[in-house]
Amino acid sequence: MEYHCRFFDFSVPNTILDRTKIPIATKCLTIAYTAFTLTLFGLRCFIYFNSKPDQSSAVKFRDINVPALQLVPSQILKFPYSIVLSNLVDTNPWRFIVNLINLLIGGSFIERNWNSSNEMIKFILGIGSITNLVVLLITVIAHYIIPTWVSLDTVLDGNYTVLIGFSIIYRQLLPETTIINIKSPSFVSKNFRFKLLPILVLTLMTLSQLFIFCHLSNLLSIWITFFSCWVYLRFYQILPASTIGVSTDYYNSVQGDASDTFQLIYFFPDIIKPILRPIFNKTYSILNEKFGIIKSFGETDIDKGNDIAEQRGAKKVTDDVKDRRRQLALDVLQERLV
């Protein structure tokens, strides 16, 4: 789909908009998301209209929660399954509409590309539930450290995987594909590609939580979701080689995405890369060498990942990037030999 005007060009690949056949996992998740969200809305309305507030205060609709479907730390022992079900509900109309469209259209595109219904369910419910559990634990710990600042009765928004995780996948599958080309005025002209989508989504959602909603737990959930989704796609996801358009004679399956362009540092603007690079390198070293949570990529894995990324349209890495990668590998090797 394309739209052209004097000020900008807008285009979305037809492969994303193809809705001729919605895959089974996307269909089930979309139905579940719609059903649980409408059920939550109905229960909140029932509680609101049947409440009997005293004369000093009135019940506000936004303060009503349903712990069976929403993630409420103080009620988690009574409703532990809310860690999973909270991935399938939303209370904000705009979030519901955006997530529904994103899940229906983007989810179909991603599941067809992955050719795996299990991966789609694992990504949305599995990664989402892990994120919810981490945020829940941090919230409980923070409550006992600073109880006046962190309340266990506040609902944690447990549904960011589609909004944030899908933007990372779009960047992975369609890195150099242009979404919007701003032509006028010239001083703001910009060719906006899918590879910029994750940082744009993160920036907008971070600013909204800091200055509009002022909900630090949700801000934490946003960033943990981003890192969780990236770690899974980078190191753990296993897909058949045939689903990414490479020869099965060379290898039967691919684990993670070892390409240079999918490194965490390249999700962020150039201006802050010098600050983030040593932090990311140190964190990687700790998680890899001390805890063994994430694996090391060999030269073969990286070359294989670069080949796949280039087939998806990613630009080849520069010699400087390759030199830094080789130098980092040498430094790690020297540390192990010492």
UniProtKB/TrEMBL annotation:
<feature type="transmembrane region" description="Helical">
    <location>
        <begin position="123"/>
        <end position="146"/>
    </location>
</feature>
<dbReference type="GO" id="GO:0005794">
    <property type="term" value="C:Golgi apparatus"/>
</dbReference>
<dbReference type="GO" id="GO:0006890">
    <property type="term" value="P:retrograde vesicle-mediated transport, Golgi to endoplasmic reticulum"/>
</dbReference>
<dbReference type="GO" id="GO:0016020">
    <property type="term" value="C:membrane"/>
</dbReference>
<feature type="transmembrane region" description="Helical">
    <location>
        <begin position="28"/>
        <end position="49"/>
    </location>
</feature>
<feature type="transmembrane region" description="Helical">
    <location>
        <begin position="94"/>
        <end position="111"/>
    </location>
</feature>
<keyword id="KW-0812">Transmembrane</keyword>
<keyword id="KW-0472">Membrane</keyword>
<protein>
    <submittedName>
        <fullName>Uncharacterized protein</fullName>
    </submittedName>
</protein>
<keyword id="KW-1133">Transmembrane helix</keyword>
<dbReference type="Pfam" id="PF08551">
    <property type="entry name" value="DUF1751"/>
</dbReference>
<feature type="transmembrane region" description="Helical">
    <location>
        <begin position="219"/>
        <end position="236"/>
    </location>
</feature>
<dbReference type="InterPro" id="IPR013861">
    <property type="entry name" value="TMEM115/Pdh1/Rbl19"/>
</dbReference>
